[in-house]
């Protein structure tokens, strides 16, 4: 069973950048398909990006394509989300998720969640 802890959130002005990290423990990190989701107040959980076990395949939601980059370092048991050109509509709690199998963009397919890290983008 894997435990996930996110970090790197904060307050940033529109147009700025942040890098989120998600550290995993308690499992073999390279055996997990990883994803990032976000949830803004009053809104549904939203897929952001996901990455395959070796990092060779990445997937993005349309609103973040070209601005966000997901990556992983299996030696460090960490997955990252580099966010650039941030917009106020990116404001949300960002969660890291994991699953042994391909989980894509469906939150219900993931077995493990982190507590999340708050990202606030001011206009």
Description of the molecule:
- This protein is mostly beta strands and 123 residues long.
- The protein is 0% helix and 50% strand.
- It has strands at 3-7, 10-13, 18-25, 33-39, 46-51, 58-60, 68-73, 78-83, 92-99, 112-113, 117-122.
- The strands form two sheets. Strands 2, 4, 5, 6, 9, 10 and 11 form a seven-stranded mixed sheet that branches.
- A hairpin with a 6-residue loop joins strand 4 (33-39) and strand 5.
- The mean pLDDT is 96.
Strand content: over 45%
Structural class: mainly beta
Any idea what the radius of gyration is? 13 Å
| Tally of DSSP β-strands | 11
Task: Give the mean pLDDT.
Answer: 96
Order of helices and strands: EEEEEEEEEEE
The helix tally amounts to 0
Query: What does the overall shape look like?
Result: globular
In this structure, how is the largest beta sheet organized?
7 strands, mixed
Proportion in helices: under 10%
Low-confidence stretches: none
The end-to-end distance, rounded to whole angstroms, is 40 Å
